[in-house]
Amino acid sequence: MARVNLKNITKVYGSNTVVDHINLDVEDGSLVSILGPSGCGKTTTLRMIAGFEIPDDGEVLFDDQPVGRVPVNKRNIGMVFQSYALFPHMTVAQNVAYGLEQHGVPKSEIPGRVMDALERVHMAEYAQRKPKQLSGGQQQRVALARALVIRPSVMLLDECLSALDKKLRVEMQSELRRLLEESKVTTFFVTHDQEEAMTLSDRIVVMHDGIIEQTGTPREVYESPRNRFVADFLGKADFFEGKLVSAGNGIVTIATENSELTLTGSTTAAPGEDVLFAVRPEHVIMNPAVGAETPVGALRGKINHIIYSGNVISSIVDCGGMMVRTEATGGSLSREPQRGEEVILSWEPDYLIQLEK
Amino acid sequence: MIKDRRTIMTWPAMLTLLLFALFPLVIMFYTSFISDATGEFSMANYAKFFSNLTYIKVTGTSILISLCVTLVSLVIAYPLAYIMAKKLKGLKNIILVLVIIPFFTNQLVRVYSWLIFLQDGGILNRLFMTFGLAENGLGILYTKAAVIIGLTHAFFPYMVVTIFMALERLDDAMLEASRSLGASKTTTFMKVIFPLSMPGVISGVTIVFIPCLGSFVEPRILGGTGGLTIGNIIEDQFFEIYGWNFGAAIAFLLLAMVLICMGGLNSAGKRWQV
Fold this sequence. Notes:
Order of helices and strands of chain B: HHHHHHHHHHHHH
Strand order of the largest sheet of chain A: 6-7-8-3-9-10
Number of strands of chain A: 20
CATH superfamily of chain B: MetI-like
Number of domains of chain B: 1
Largest sheet of chain B: none
Number of strands of chain B: 0
CATH superfamily of the largest domain in chain A: P-loop containing nucleotide triphosphate hydrolases
Number of domains of chain A: 2
Number of helices of chain B: 13
Number of helices of chain A: 8
Structural class of chain B: mainly alpha
CATH class of chain B: Mainly Alpha
CATH architecture of chain B: Orthogonal Bundle
Low-confidence stretches of chain B: none
CATH class of the largest domain in chain A: Alpha Beta
Mean pLDDT of chain A: 92
Largest interface: A-B, 28 and 19 residues
Shape of chain B: globular
Strand content of chain A: 35-45%
Structural class of chain A: alpha+beta
CATH topology of the largest domain in chain A: Rossmann fold
Oligomer: heterodimer
Distance between the termini of chain A: 39 Å
Helix content of chain A: 10-25%
Order of helices and strands of chain A: EEEHEEEHHHEHEHEEHHEEEEEEEEEE
Radius of gyration of chain B: 23 Å
């Protein structure tokens, strides 16, 4: 219920710039994931929005109002922590009521709103329990109810699903999305799990080494990654790097260190420029090599390694010293690939992604 | 068989306890009923204690001194433990060592240092007189105040350590959660930090109050006549008057008092346990 702008915010610890002049504009009511590996500055960014950390430079704005001087307890935020951080000496109901009491909600309204919030996360029957008597998933729900009940302008979730086991995490993802959409609250979701970021948010902000690498919808970021880091961090990718020799008719030719490669695809670069391309394993089609001919734009190689993981069979193909991965869903292969087999790898022209050098 | 072999390991400890703690206690309990005057088995020693107002008064003084020491220790220890646990990062171990130093100091050295510090020609009095704050000196030595100072110095480290441990276990995210829910720093302290540190406070109170009740060295050296405690009475019965049976009776009354206090504190502690 607030528009959030980050203007040039920076945080320095000693000689280490953890967050480096970040700019981000977030629409009212949108769900934004801040995604990145550990140490990329995503949690620090979240803590600056919350007010637990003060930016060394730049400012945070809620609805165009700078909040630099507003203490945490006056920012009207809802925060959910990785450790849930429920108050162990209070019951579930008391935990949820805590924020309402602090916000000066009339005493007569509190029990009703507490039960309402607990019902929305299906925890009403546990109202009189202590947090210790709940499972991790249940504590998570209570933590969510406690944050949402105060009707915050901004919700901040810090790796809040990572302590749950995988099955429960997937369940909670869709439930969390439903809850946040219902409450129409602007949400920041810090995570290192790309799947979580994809499922939960309208927009993904990819962070690395204190800067934003790319911002976009989950589809944009996955299908058109800007650079090598984003392509590699979200999903898997194999890279082709070299000098562009020629391009046209759906074929690009690049000169790598020791040979020339022809790849299916197109480019905006001019011949002579250094270029970097990527292709995702699930887009690579593998066929047995018949005869000595290699179609133009395809790669020929030998299967080096096969990984069977139930729904997906991954093959790593050695194309003259360069390893290219390919993935096929379980039922889609007419026959099992064999190690050492000669294969031809190809893909549709649109699947060759050009990255920034 | 396996179970037996395991319990063998506890025998030395059990035997030591039996021989040197339980057995003497049983003998003392028995002698406490033997009258010093007639040598007969009776309640005379206990009756003697309760019929003499001086003993009751001294018991009152002991309780008063112990309460004061506990309170002063708590007031000093809590903020220190809080700062150590929540505000300091690298320094906290150094401060912990500094706090624990009185532990390692010989009791007599510690007490005589206070004697020198507090006496009429001592540093404290001279300081106060130099600055014109007290014309004839403070006259603290040989009062209850001197005993309280000496005992606080001896026991407050226990309080620091127990509260420090309780506070250090506290998840910082919990405090941040409280702040994010709209609570000020003061409210967060009152509603989250303090209640959750209560188990540490209660063990601190127990560990300071109980030994204070039976203390006799500090009162003897620093307390004069006004700071006489129940510990001194027992000491006198054993070493000066040789009224061992009466001394045993008082010792058992003290033990009863200690057990009652521990029971009370223990159940208070359970209430705060999460």
